[in-house]
Amino acid sequence: MTDPLIAFLIELDKDEALKQKYLADPQAVAKSYGLTAADIAICVNNDAKAMKQRAEAEGADVVHIYHAN
After folding, report:
1. Is 67 helix (H, G, I), strand (E, B) or coil?
2. Helix, strand, or coil here: 63?
3. In contact, 22 and 29? CB cutoff 8 Å
4. 15-54 burial code (b ≥16 CB/10 A, e <16)
5. What is the pLDDT of residues 33-46, one digit of tens each?
């Protein structure tokens, strides 16, 4: 897996502490992970369509995206 956005989303799914920090301040956490401004915007805006497209481009067969809000 080479897409930094997808790697970040997978890490969020696996790491509860990171997830809690992200829920408190998504932009800061995404930025600290080294994501580009465009990827940060995808996260902050909960752009499920963009996330799904990127995951599929990485070869994901099934994509489930759940939002906290």
Report:
1. coil
2. coil
3. yes
4. eeebeeebeeebeebbbebebeeebbebbeeeeeebbeeb
5. 999 999 999 999 99
